[in-house]
TrEMBL record:
PANTHER family registered for this protein in UniProt: CHAD DOMAIN-CONTAINING PROTEIN (PTHR39339:SF1), SLR1444 PROTEIN (PTHR39339)
Top-level lineage group: Bacteria
Residues annotated as domain CHAD: 9-294
Name of the featured protein: CHAD domain-containing protein
SMART domains: CHAD (SM00880)
Pfam families (UniProt xref): CHAD
Length: 294
């Protein structure tokens, strides 16, 4: 699906309508694929599509009616939340358990953990599909209708001036804003990591303690927002944004994603182990009651 053709002199609201319409089409196609087949990559693409739309809504919030912006923000956040549990299990299975089992194929513990994780992942996927159905059937058509209304509003006399501002000027201003927020979050994480290094137990990397700090999640969100904004608006942005800055942000986003995925994997493994212990306790108790006393 070809991206929309952006022009530097087109209105900012026109650009939002074009970009959002293309992203909604891709999102709908990914949802259909997700329902037809069980491929973790389809879920990954769906989450990327949602992130891009969320970044787009943030970038163009100044030209959107307040109620529309708030509605898009809530609906996209709810869809993202619905995909979280299933994606977490995919990350654990594909990134941790299956590679570990390849290296240690005779491990009964790894095999048991993988079997339990697969069962929980299937349950999470079933719940996710049920939760996403109303969004596919009602929410996406609603968002498309709102885009059609916004498209008509672009050329109306009462359109707010910023909605008609040239995309070139508007895009630079918003990308600079996103960059400032990203740099602010980087400083917060650096401070949190420094404090964590003093409080961390010996032998434990300070980044592990910093993972629990909300500033790390805020930095990742800021990095994704800036990256997707640059990618979407690349045709009207200066080369300095499309080159070195984009590469730097993408590298950091990948690093943060790997760290947070590792944290999710540790949390889910702890959940699986705790469940195994709980299941074993009744068996131990039964054995103890049946055993003769000497």
């Amino acid at each position: 699906m070809a991206p929309p053709h952006l022009k530097r002199r087109m209105g900012a609201l026109d650009a939002f309508v074009a970009l959002a319409a293309a992203d909604l089409d891709r999102l709908a196609a990914t949802l259909r694929a997700l329902e037809r087949r069980d491929h973790p990559e389809d879920l990954h693409r769906l989450r990327i599509g949602l992130r891009r739309l969320r970044a787009l809504r943030w970038m163009f919030a100044p030209v959107l009616p307040g109620a529309v912006s708030a509605r898009w923000r809530q609906m996209l956040a709810d869809m993202m939340a619905a995909t979280g549990p299933a994606r977490d299990w995919d990350v654990l299975i594909d990134g941790t358990l299956q590679p570990a089992l390849v290296r240690h194929p005779r491990s009964p513990v790894l095999r048991a953990l993988l079997d339990e994780a697969m069962m929980r992942r299937d349950t999470a996927r079933t719940i996710m599909l049920a939760e996403l159905t109303p969004y596919r059937e009602r929410t996406l058509p609603l968002l498309r209708r709102e885009l059609a209304i916004l498209q008509r509003h672009c050329n109306m006399p009462d359109a707010i001036p910023v909605a008609r501002s040239p995309l070139k000027k508007f895009a630079r201003k918003r990308v600079r804003r996103a960059r400032r927020l990203w740099l602010a979050r980087k400083r917060e994480v650096a401070a949190a990591t420094s404090q964590a290094s003093e409080a961390t137990e010996p032998g434990m990397p300070p980044e592990f303690a910093a993972l629990a700090n909300p500033s790390l999640h805020a930095q990742r969100i800021a990095a994704k927002r800036l990256r997707y904004a640059i990618e979407a608006l690349a045709p009207v942005l200066p080369r300095r944004y499309r080159g070195r800055l984009l590469r730097k942000v993408a590298r950091q986003q990948q690093g943060l994603g790997a760290a947070l995925d590792a944290a999710v994997a540790r949390r889910l493994i702890a959940t699986l182990l705790a469940s195994a212990v709980d299941k074993a306790e009744p068996a131990r108790s039964a054995d103890g009651m049946a055993s003769p006393a000497y």
